[in-house]
Amino acid sequence: MDSVPVNGVLRSRLIETTIMALEYDGGVVIGADSRTTTGAYIANRVTDKLTPIHDRIFCCRSGSAADTQAIADVVTYQLGFHSIELDEPPLVETAANLFRASCYRYREELTAGILVAGWDRRKGGQVYCVPIGGMLVRQPVSVGGSGSSYIYGFMDSNYKPNMTKDQCLELTAAAVSLAMERDGSSGGVVRLASISKDGVERRVILGNQLPKYSTH
Amino acid sequence: MALSNVLHAPAAGFNFDHAARNAELEGLFDAQIPKPVKTGTTIAGVVFKDGVVLGADTRATSSEIVADKMCSKIHYIAPNIYCCGAGTAADTEKTTELLSSNLTIFSLNSGRNPRVVMAVNILQEMLYRYHGQIGASLILGGVDCTGNHLYTVGPYGSVNTMPYLAMGSGDLAALGILEDGYKPDLELDKAKELVRAAIHAGVMNDLASGNNIDICVLTREGVDHIRPYQVSQYKDKRKTKYKYGAGTTAVLTEKVVPVKLEVVEETVQRMDTA
Question: What top-level class would CATH report for the domain A3-209?
Answer without folding.
Answer: alpha beta
